[in-house]
Design brief:
329 residues, mainly alpha, 3 domains, three-stranded antiparallel β-sheet, 14 helices, 5 strands, binds zinc ion
Amino acid sequence: MHKGAIDREAVLKTLDEYDRMGREAFLAAYGYGEARSYLLVHEGKEYDSKAVAGVAHQHVHGRALRPDEFSGGRDHAARWLRDLGFHVKSVRNPDWARDELILACDLVAKNDWRGLDAGNPRVVELSQLLQLMPVHAQADRNETFRNPNGVARKTFDIATRHPDYRGKPTNGGALDRIVLQDFLDRPAEMENSARLLREGIASGELTAAAPVSDDEMDDYSAPEGRLLLRQHLARERNRGLRKRKIEAVLRQGGTLACEACGFDFERQYGERGAGYIECHHVVPLHEAGEGRTKLADLALICANCHRVIHRQAPWPTPKQLREIVEARR
Ligand SMILES: [Zn+2]
Ligand SMILES: [Zn+2]
C-alpha cells in the first residue's frame, strides 16, 4: 500500500467512526496514543491527527496503518491531511529560535534586566514583530503563537536568569541562557543584531522569503541568528558584486587564488575552473547592514575555505584561516 494515499472521503468516514466511538475507544481500538504534536480541527471539533490519517487507510487500502508504520509529523500524516484541505494545528508552539531570543533579550536588557508584563506596549509590539518573522512555518504555529502572554513569560525567563537576579529562576530553555550570556559578553554586537533584525523585519527585507529551517542552516553558525545570516549569504552570492571584485583584483595584477589556502580553480581544473572563485564578506553581520558593500570588504575564497569560515562562529578572517592552513603545512 502507498502510505499517505488517502482521500477526503476516507478521512470523513474515519471522523464519523471516531465520533461514534469516542476518542478513547477509537484510539484504543487502533492502538494509537493521544496526539502530542498535531490535531485535526473539523467542524469545531479536535481529533488526533495521526490516528485519523492512519485509520483512514483502511477505507482505501483495506487495512489501517499501525502507529509504528509512519510518522505523524508535518512531512507525513499532518501533511497528508493538509493536502486534502483539512485544518491541522500544532498542539505546541515551536521552541524559541535564536533570532527570536535576540529580540526578547534586547527588550529585557533595555528594561534594566527586568521582565515585562503582557500589557506593556513594548511586549505587544514585540509579539507582532515575532509573528511576522519567517523563522517558523505557519503550519507549526497555533493560535497562541508568540502572543503577548508568551512574550511576557519569556522576558521573565530571561530576566530571572540574569546573574544579578536574586530569587528562583522561572523556566526557560538552554538557548535562553546562551543568548543572555552573549548579551552580557558582547552587548554592543548583540544590540546591533537586534536593531538590524527589527529594521529588516519592518522594511520587509527579512520577511519576504520562506521560513529558514534548521536543516538549511545546519552547516552554518552565526551569533546573529538565521535571518541575518541568510541575508549575509545572499549578499555574498550577488553576482554583480562578485564580478566587480574579480575585475578589480585582475586589474591590479592579482590572481583568483584563494586568499586563505592559495587554491586556484584554473590551475586545478583548467578551462572549466577559469574565472571561478567565491566572494566572502569579511564584515561581521552586526556591523554590516547599512550602506553599500565596499569591494575592500570582500575576500576571494575557495569553496572549501568559505564553508569552513562560516561553519563556526565567530568566523575567522581569511588571514586567520591562512595562518591555520600554513601552520599545518
Ligand atoms: Zn581556500
Ligand atoms: Zn562568506
